Amino acid sequence: MTDNLYRFRASKTLTNFRLLNLPKHQLQAFKITINGKPTEQALDSVTFKTNDIIEVRRVDHVRDYPVLEFRRDFIKDLLAPLPRLGNIRSLSGLFRGCKRLHSVPRDIFVNNPHVTDFSDIFKGCSALALDVDLNPNGSIKLDGFASGCKQQAVIHSRSPSRVQGYVDRARDANVAIR
After folding, report:
1. In this structure, how many other beta carbons lie within 10 angstroms of the beta carbon of residue 100?
2. Which of 22, 91, 97, 158 is the most exposed place for a label (fewest CB within 10 A)?
3. pTM over 0.90
4. Which pairs from 104-108 meet CB under 8 Å and 24+ separation?
């Protein structure tokens, strides 16, 4: 099992990094390391620079994470699968417009098998060459999945014919199944 954390390489300098919908009093539940060194900066005011490797880890023993606000386009490479995001069923538009995003791990969704909506998740990620595993437990939405990516996305699945059915019904998914 992989570590349950956010780990990424920054694409630009950023201040006021934040998690979506997280009350200020819950910020102490997270520790941040920058290039392997712990920082005492608060989560809502942490500053990092281009190419820094950032880790955001929960320290309050809660397994689930809130969603990062990726649309601010501060990520160059996602270096670990998304952490367990609780009962979230939709990742729609999660990385939409992240023009600086170059890579994500093939097992990006491994900790969130219950997600059913992947619509527009990588839409407009023009630098991304996407190659991911997608093994849904139920019906899924893939509209605009990788629309506008550098090249057609590759999806690997244990049941490729099933995933192909969802791709066939999707609007502009821009994927090939393997």
Report:
1. 18
2. 158
3. yes
4. 104/77, 104/78, 104/128, 104/130, 104/132, 105/78, 105/79, 105/80, 105/81, 106/131, 106/132, 106/133, 106/156, 107/2, 107/81, 107/132, 107/133, 108/78, 108/81, 108/82, 108/132, 108/133
First to last CA, the chain: 24
**Span 36-81, pLDDT tens digits:** 999 988 777 888 999 999 999 999 988 899 888 888 899 999 999 9
Check residue 168 and report its DSSP letter: H
Token pair for 117: 């909506």
* Residue 74, CA atoms < 13 Å, CB-side half-sphere: 20
Q: Write out the two tokens for 36.
A: 């392997």
- In the block, which residue shows the tokens 């386009």? 73
Rounded distance, CA 174 to CA 8, Å? 25
